[in-house]
Input
Amino acid sequence: MAAETIQWIENTPLGVTVRRISFVAPHAHENMVEITLCLDGSITFDYCFEEFRLTKGEFILVDRDTHYMHSGDNALCASFYIDLSKMTDRYRNACDQMFVCEGTSESEVPYNTPEHKQLRGMLIAVLDYLLRNEDRGEHFTDDISHVTEGIMDLIYRRFDYVFWKQPDQEINDKTLAMMKELVSYLFQHHTERITLKDLARHINVSNGYISVLMSKNAIGFEQCLGYIRSWHAERLLLTTDMSIADISEESGFSATKYMYSAFSYWYHCTPGEYRNRYLQEMRKEDDLTVVPIEDAREQIIRLTNEQLILMYIKGDDVWN
Output
């Protein structure tokens, strides 16, 4: 699987790469969040067997899922990478979580919430700051680390999969921490036989409580475990020549039919269809050019000005 060129900012958990893209081959990240923001033109972003078209100012976040991008007009974009392994002191189990954010009009859920607007503004502000501080003088590293923590706080608290279907729900910090602990447990033990009783014992609550907690505040126990096992299967489909039956067993499914059901739900296709399509794309060569941020000056300044007008002239509710 292709490896991306990431321009890490030294002594921070953030990387930012500006590129002109025709095609970026399928790839995936471990312990990382990637956010791609379109600066000019349009980009088609493909993951989970779905396509999203990003235009200027739109963005999409992906964590561990395999994804690729292509553009017919050599689009300009900025990709932001947050190394979760460097943030475990602040977010103990961040590497095990499920994050999703589709800041595009093609998302199936409301995309232009105050949280989407806030994240978009923070990404644009990072680009503007980098553009104005190419010499990386005093306080540069501290400033980048600080804004990265702010971005991650927003992602961790509002773009967890817990909120995907119910973006307006309010979950207190204690409940959210419990949900994240449960998801972490599922990631670490997904190849084993897991029951609700195991989860209840892990966080020291009753069996009845855990069932209500999972169904009320998340996607449900079975669906969550199904996604995690399907993700494991996805990786094996693309990196091995194992049979689907063997992949099913290796991923923790008790029978191949359960893998087909869960995989089709999460990836909108069968395992065989997914393997054929993505392996075909993986055979292609990257067609992109990494450019200095100065080459995107015009686009960044335009987006910054548009953001300021939205916030202070049109009274957009970015911070509400």
